[in-house]
Design a protein that fits this description.
Elements lengths: L32 H4 L1 H19 L6 H26 L3 H9 L16 H16 L2 H10 L11 H4 L23 E2 L2 E2 L8 E4 L8 E4 L7 H10 L4 E4 L4 E2 L2 E2 L12 E4 L2 E9 L2 E8 L6 E7 L14 H12 L4 E4 L6 H16 L6 H11 L7 H16 L6 H21 L5
Parallel strand pairs: 4-12, 5-11, 5-12
Antiparallel strand pairs: 1-2, 3-4, 6-7, 8-9, 9-10, 10-11
Helix pairs in contact: 3-12, 3-13, 10-11, 10-12, 12-13
GO molecular function, one term: protein tyrosine phosphatase activity
Organism: Mesorhabditis spiculigera
InterPro entries: Prot-tyrosine_phosphatase-like, PTP_cat, Tyr_Pase_AS, Tyr_Pase_cat, Tyr_Pase_dom
Length: 425
């Protein structure tokens, strides 16, 4: 079970003294090395897309299945090519070799991470379950527990703070909620200890996760209080500020490199922007020691659905590990759909890496015991299966045909589930 009141790790906080710039000193930053490299990155992106397009031509003719099949092939590609292309770029011969590689192919002899015997066994059990279980049974098993738990945990503090809750029917469990400090250093707050956020913590996870709703205008300061208090290494935002003409999340951080903003008593400085990764410095009023966190801003995961661009969960997973070893905050709009799906994928992968078979239905229940209503629909649940398969394929390419068959059997069910579920994500 999750640790409801983890001890803040401020003693381990990496500190740095910050001198706030004067408003007169803040000017539009000149082009930075990170910004000047974007053009080369976009060129790489176009090259990558051209390689992937050859694979897309072989996708099934059925329009309703095309997006899902395309996503499946790209997810394996992106995770593999990220590992293979970095060292290869140093020599012309290696670069030519990369151009020849097919989009979804991992050639024998290429350096790839290897599973241990225990991890191999866990991966085999997971894949054998999918092989032996009809698609209808996987869906049926999920639908039987979709309302789990029948008896909801206490959420009395949540009920007393309705103005801070984005959705009235999405509850924050008392047992696992993140409790904010009302003072640290010279910083004090009269705004209470409540934020709509829950700890996800199990012994097999390499770090703790915090699942939370997208900040509201009146909770942005609370959000940054939490990030600073818990020394958060990475923030994963899997929604946009506005989707479908509706507000999903307040604009809670400075968008442009070199900009800074004060949110109540919390100072946030955007030091650098590199593709979807924002390097942010956070400092409360009255404190001299700041922290630096990475914000991964992913806007390509649709509400109640799955990303059409491949590699999203595995890419996010890699970026969070590059950010450090501290807790990871994950949020979408309500903090249960896309948020819960990503954390379920992480739980399954990390269970497998511990040499244990990831039993998805059990992990789903464990997650809901920490964050109420996590993973809202069939499509999200099946996408978690699909993403775990993608991870296995990066090390066991022989399971790629299983992934293709899995999507062929389930894509129609996923489409129907997405169309039938009207709830916010």
């Amino acid at each position: 079970m999750a640790d409801p009141k983890p001890t803040p790790i401020s003693a381990k906080r990496t500190t740095r003294r910050v001198k706030r710039p004067s408003r007169e000193a803040i000017i539009t930053p000149t082009t930075t090395p990170e910004q000047s490299s974007r053009s080369s990155k976009s060129g790489k992106g176009r090259s990558e897309k051209s390689r992937v397009s050859n694979n897309e031509k072989r996708v099934r003719n059925a329009p309703s299945k095309e997006v899902i099949a395309r996503s499946a092939s790209k997810e394996t590609v992106e995770d593999n090519t990220q590992r293979a292309t970095k060292p290869a770029s140093s020599t012309p011969s290696a670069a030519q070799d990369n151009k020849k590689r097919k989009a979804a192919t991992v050639k024998p002899g290429r350096a790839q991470p290897k599973f241990t015997p225990e991890q191999d066994s866990a991966a085999d059990k997971f894949c054998n379950y999918i092989k032996s279980t009809p698609a209808e049974q996987i869906v049926s098993d999920f639908e039987k527990v979709q309302t789990y738990p029948e008896k909801k945990g206490d959420c009395e503090v949540c009920k007393k703070n309705t103005a801070k809750n984005r959705y009235g029917d999405v509850h924050c469990l008392d047992a696992t909620r993140v409790e904010l400090k009302t003072d640290f250093g010279n910083y004090t707050s009269a705004d209470g200890d409540y934020i709509h956020a829950n700890w996800i913590s199990f012994d097999y996870l390499e770090r703790k996760y915090i699942a939370t709703q997208g900040p509201k205008d009146n909770t942005i300061e609370d959000f940054w209080r939490m990030v600073f208090q818990e020394n958060v290494a990475a923030i994963v935002c899997v929604c946009n500020f506005v989707e479908g003409g509706q507000s999903k999340c307040a604009e809670y951080f400075p968008i442009n490199a070199g900009e800074y903003k004060n949110y109540g008593k919390m100072f946030v400085n955007n030091k650098k922007v590199d593709d979807i990764v924002y390097t942010l410095e956070v400092l409360p009023d009255g404190c001299s020691n700041s922290i630096v966190t990475k914000l991964i801003f992913c806007t390509e995961w649709p509400d109640k659905g799955m990303p059409t661009k491949g590699g999203i969960p595995l890419k996010i997973r890699r970026l969070t590990r590059e950010a450090g070893t501290g807790p990871v905050v994950v949020h979408c709009s309500a903090g249960i759909g896309r948020t819960g799906t990503y954390i379920l994928i992480e739980m399954a992968i990390q269970k497998l890496l511990k040499g244990k078979e990831p039993v998805m239905i059990d992990l789903y229940k464990d997650l809901r015991d920490c964050r109420a209503s996590s993973v809202q629909n069939t499509q999200q649940y099946l996408y978690a299966y699909s993403s775990v398969l993608d991870f296995i394929i990066t090390r066991r390419i022989e399971y790629k045909p299983l992934k293709t068959k899995f999507l062929k059997d389930l894509c129609e069910i996923m489409e129907e589930a997405a169309a039938a579920d009207p709830r916010p994500n």
